[in-house]
């Protein structure tokens, strides 16, 4: 988990509690504090350092390095062969680790495992329609040129494989999408569980963070990389790039409409409250 000064302390505490209170406990929790944070967030982190000192390791970076570098820095401190990712403002289902650990132990051929997630706004009781992601490796590969087929905050992966690939690649806002692409290009298998095991905080700011020229440029760079590695045809590259142009520069009202259309009419997976 990575935290930085923009994180809401109350949301961060809920996220951390959801990992600490799993039905199957994590062996270790690595928290990377990406640069200086305000007093309220720093106070919460110090409290948990005192009460969870046997499991929680907090790493304080002197300056904000950005998510990619913070993730790779944290990866160096992970000792377990399986790494579970978690964002600092989401809420993990209490059986998340249980389900993912069990699956990865039973399927050593799978390098990375994601899950469905249930989006909410404001309170976890205010659930939103959620997109349904493909499950098997073949379906994930087919979706790869069009959209990110794996929810980053839900993943569990084999540490040695990701480290061998160099960790998260430097592509701002798309470091996760690029990592899945590199795994697939190298022949590693990825999969998604049908269960919703994460409650994901979503609002208009989420849409705004995904807009603009930088996002669009990186989307094109990634899809060109997919084309050059035989994971995307030229016609698909052109159509997907045009779609990204619309998504990244459309008015917020149109993006909100497209977001609703992209979601299923029913919530995916479990609607059980965290």
What layout of secondary structure does this protein have?
Layout: E1 2-3, H1 9-20, E2 29-34, H2 39-51, E3 56-61, H3 67-76, E4 82-84, E5 91-92, H4 96-106, E6 110-120, H5 137-143, E7 156-158, H6 159-164, H7 175-185, E8 189-201, H8 204-209, H9 213-228, H10 234-249, H11 252-262
Parallel strand pairs: 1-2, 2-3, 6-8
Antiparallel strand pairs: 4-7, 5-8, 6-7
Helix pairs in contact: 9-10
What does this molecule look like?
43% of the residues lie in helices and 17% in strands. It is α/β, with parallel strands linked by helices and 274 residues long. It has a domain at 76-262: Spore Coat Polysaccharide Biosynthesis Protein SpsA, Chain A. The strands form two sheets. It has a five-stranded mixed β-sheet with strand order 4-7-6-8-5. α9 (213-228) packs antiparallel against α10 (234-249).
